[in-house]
Specification:
Elements: E1 2-8, H1 11-22, E2 27-34, E3 37-44, H2 48-57, H3 71-75, E4 79-80, H4 81-86, H5 88-94, H6 106-152, H7 154-166, H8 170-179, H9 186-200, E5 213-218, H10 225-240, E6 245-249, H11 257-268, E7 271-274, H12 278-287, E8 293-297, H13 307-321, E9 326-333, H14 338-348, E10 355-359, H15 368-377, E11 381-385, E12 394-396, H16 399-413, H17 419-432
Parallel strand pairs: 5-8, 5-9, 6-7, 6-8, 9-10, 10-11
Antiparallel strand pairs: 1-3, 2-3, 2-4, 11-12
């Protein structure tokens, strides 16, 4: 019988050492916890009768070594390593909790710090390389898909080029492509997409003379809400007289906002009423309930401004509690980027605007952005403005006129995107078709 002492940091490692050196048939004679870790006394070729005889005479059973027999070794039944290894969960429950982790000396931390930093840098470099590789593969896939489409369906590729030249966003252009017939000739590829574009554009059908009720113009700053209100008020004055038209200002944030509206009011002979909260707006609207047209000018607030929610609460409160139904109209500047327009629409959607007004058409290099946003969100268009003159530079919305104007604007700008740009914009979308 061979007896040996094993010392390890924890029970799992000690059992692993016993099994590795003495095999699965080794017998555990005792276990105890020391400052150095876990001590295990194990034996092979174990003879229990010999151990009892040695204990009775106080002599060692073998000249190899005398194990430090503990109370655990005397009373506990002997277990073989193979029986313990079969049930690791049971062994873990039976032993005492593992010792606390040994603190790492500061000298070792200083030694390991450069290694850790180098590992972090290597990981970042690998991520950058993988990102670049992925981008390269996507570009190659896009180019292959676009070249294949130009070869198989040259007319559909031409339509996508025209949509790109108009500035139509990728998702809207793909939606229009899906509605085209399978086989196109040159004339159809030239005119049919414009017809589909105008048909997809939703208009309210509201004329400039149809201004009865309460209309609040909302939107981000700088889109021309106050000037547009002056144009709408001028048309209402010409049709119903100044006594039936009133202007209300809720903009108490921007310096000079009320003064600008009051200036227009004096020119038109229309009174301007201030309202700074929901109760004040409700009281003012009740006072003006016998007027034909009431136009509310609001503060320009961007989508990430915390005052936006406050302004929405004011308009909702006046709409639900007041006697007159308030109609919210979102004002969008056509010369803004498509992403900014989309962000504005998403910010004001909780207000559930009844319609939109597209302003500054004369300053927009492309109308594709505003057209894409209106089609994507299915927003009805009330009217458009294309200048600062009051009241001349405003007209009721007409989808065909607006699409033709967009096409004429792009023809003046010359050729559109090259093959690389087309592949980048539409390649992946074409591959998914």
């Amino acid at each position: 019988m061979k007896i040996k002492r094993f010392l390890a940091a924890d029970m799992r490692q000690a059992m692993r050492d016993v099994r590795a050196e003495q095999g699965a048939d080794a017998v555990i004679l005792s276990t105890r916890r020391l400052e150095e870790g876990i001590e295990i006394i194990a034996a092979v070729d174990y003879d229990e009768s010999l151990m009892r005889e040695a204990a009775r005479h106080g002599s060692p059973a073998t000249p190899a070594a005398k194990p430090p027999v503990t109370e655990t070794a005397k009373e506990a039944p002997k277990e073989r390593v193979k029986d313990i290894v079969k049930e690791p969960a049971k062994e873990a429950r039976a032993t005492t909790p593992p010792p606390p982790p040994i603190p790492v000396p500061q000298s070792e931390i200083a030694t390991l710090q450069p290694i850790v930093e180098q590992s972090v840098l290597e990981t970042a470099r690998m991520r950058t390389e993988l990102g670049g590789l992925r981008q390269l593969l996507e570009q190659q896939l896009s180019s292959l898909a676009w070249n294949d489409m130009e070869r198989r369906s040259p007319m559909r590729a031409r339509v996508l080029r025209d949509m790109s030249r108009l500035g139509i966003d990728t998702d809207v252009a793909r939606q229009l492509i899906d509605e085209l017939p399978e086989h196109l000739n040159a004339d159809q590829a030239r005119y049919l997409p414009l017809g589909l574009l105008s048909r997809s554009l939703k208009v309210s059908g509201r004329r400039l003379t149809d201004s009865q009720g309460v209309t609040a113009l909302v939107g981000p700053t700088g889109v021309g809400k106050t000037t547009t209100i002056a144009k709408l008020a001028a048309n209402a004055v010409m049709n119903h007289g100044p006594g039936k038209v009133a202007l209300v200002s809720t903009d108490h944030y921007r310096i000079g906002a009320a003064a600008q509206l009051e200036h227009y009011g004096r020119l038109l002979g229309v009174r301007v009423y201030p309202a700074y909260d929901a109760a004040g707006l409700e009281q003012t609207l009740n006072l003006l309930r016998d007027h034909h047209t009431v136009l509310v000018d609001t503060a320009g607030v961007s989508g990430n401004d915390p005052r936006l929610q406050q302004q929405m609460d004011v308009l909702r409160g006046a709409s639900t509690q007041g006697s007159a139904k308030l109609r919210a109209c979102l004002v969008l500047a056509a010369n803004a980027q498509a992403s900014a327009l989309d962000e504005s629409v998403r910010a004001y959607l909780p207000l559930q605007p009844s319609a939109c007004i597209a302003t500054k058409l004369d300053e927009a290099p492309s109308l594709g952005g505003v057209l894409s946003v209106l089609i994507r969100h299915r927003l009805a268009l009330d009217c458009t403005t294309d200048g600062q003159r009051v009241p001349e530079d405003i007209s009721a919305a007409d989808a065909r006129v607006l699409v033709c104007r967009a096409a004429q604007t792009q023809r003046r700008l010359g050729p559109g995107a090259d093959d690389l740009d087309m592949a980048e914009r539409f390649g992946l979308a074409v591959a998914s078709l």
